[in-house]
Structure formats: C-alpha cells, structure tokens
Amino acid sequence: FFVPRLVPAFPIGILAMFASGIFYVFLGLESFLFIHRDRLRRLVQLILLYFVFLGFFLTGSPEGGIKRFFLFFAATFILLRDFMRVQAGGPNAETGLRAKESLGAGMLSLAAMELAWILGLLPLRAFNAANVMASAVFIGADIISLSLAGKVSRKVLLINSSVFFAIIVLIFATSHWNP
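User: That's the sequence. What structure does it adopt?
Assistant: Structure tokens below.
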C-alpha cells in the first residue's frame, strides 16, 4: 500500500533482503565487539606493547638518555597494568587485587626496562631485540596474571619457561649479529 505503483515490487524485495543481511552482519559484529571485548582488548594491548618495544629499539642506542628509558618504563607500566586488570576481571575487581596488579606491572616494567638496556648492548637488530622483549614480557605477564588469579602450577611454569627458551634460541639462531 505504501509503495507507489510506478516502482515494481521485485527490486524492493531484493533491497529489503540485502538490508536485512547487512543488518545481521552488523548485529554479529556488534555482538563480537561488545560482548567479547576482553579478548580484543588484550590483543590490542599486546600489539601496542610490541610497537612500544619496536619503537624503543628503532630509535637509537641504549645510551640515548634517561628520558627515553623513563618513557619506555611509563608506557610499559600503563599497558601492562591495564592488561592485568583485564585479565583479573576488569574494573570491578577488589582494591587489594588492584594494588597487586599495579605492583606486578611495575616489577615487570622494571625488568623489561633492564632487559631493554641489556638487549641494546647486544649487537642485535631492532626487530630481533623487540621479539626477545615481547616474548619475555608476554610470558612474564601471563605468569603474573595467573599468579594473581591463583592458577599457577608447576606444569604452567614449565610450559611457559620451555616456550620462552625455545623462542629465545630460535631468535638468536636466526639473527644476524651486527658488530
């Protein structure tokens, strides 16, 4: 009744089916982005951490100054603290757990800063040094997050350390050392 007689009914039916298909695609994307957002957020945080590591090693030598190391520590601390909050259950976690998350993120950030200084002294290229940093920090963050949740076991520690050493050996074996 609302369609004028000049417009045939067939194209409107196809247009309606196309619009409903697009609607269901958007509904699926919305469900993925808003319901399962913790996985996507963790992925984005880990990618940002990797870019922080890569940017640190691409910018220069380890003697670049204390300001560069302080910025590296601050960026790593902020991203790791947020990563551990997402792992522990988000902003609804209790206050004591938030303090432990901040302490764990600070300790891991300090260890990452020291590892960055050591890797800066080695004759590695920037991508290899960033990969070593990423593997160390990602596995360290996983162990600290599991520790805060009370799910650390001997098996988890052995698996994580075995994966870490296998990745390190692979990175050092395939790297071209710059004198």
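Residues 9-35 form the longest helix (27 residues).
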